[in-house]
C-alpha cells in the first residue's frame, strides 16, 4: 500500500507500483482534469505538482509517491476562489481547444511559486515545455504577467 497526499488529503492505493501517476489520477481517483497527451514525457499535458514542483505525471511511477504531496488542477483553486493563475487565464481568455490548459496552468503556477516575478524570457522558456497545438503562447505569457500583478 502506498500512502500520499492528494490535493491536501491523505489517500492510499494498492495499484502496481510501476503504474504511472497519470493513470492513477484519472482511473482510480477520477481526477480527469489532468490530461493524457503523449504518455512519454514529451507534451506536458499531464503536468501536476509533486511537492510543489511541476512534474509529468505520465512518467511518475506510483511507487515514488510515498509521503509526497500531489496537487492536480482540481486542487489548485476552488470555483469560489480561483488560483491567481486560473483567474488570469479566464481574464485573458487563454484557452482555445483547451486540452493542454490544465498542464499549462500547473506549470505556470509552479513557475510563479518558485519565481514570483519572472521575466518574459523566463516565462517563455518555462512554458515552451508544454506543447499547445493552438499556439496560445502569447496569451499564456500575458496571463502569467497578469497573475504576477
Ligand atoms: Fe505526459 Fe505528454 S502525457 S508529457
From TrEMBL:
Q: Which CDD domains match?
A: fer2
Q: What is this protein called?
A: 2Fe-2S ferredoxin-type domain-containing protein
Keyword Cytoplasm assigned = no
Q: Which UniProt keywords apply?
A: 2Fe-2S, Iron, Iron-sulfur, Metal-binding, Oxidoreductase
User: What highest taxon heads this organism's lineage?
Assistant: Bacteria
Q: Could you confirm whether the keyword Cytoplasm appears in this record? A: no
GO MF, one term, reads: oxidoreductase activity
Species source reads Oceanicoccus sagamiensis
Chain ranges of the 2Fe-2S ferredoxin-type domain: 1-76
* Stretches assigned to coiled coil: none
PANTHER family recorded: BLR6218 PROTEIN (PTHR44379:SF2), OXIDOREDUCTASE WITH IRON-SULFUR SUBUNIT (PTHR44379)
Pfam families (alphabetical): Fer2, Fer2_2
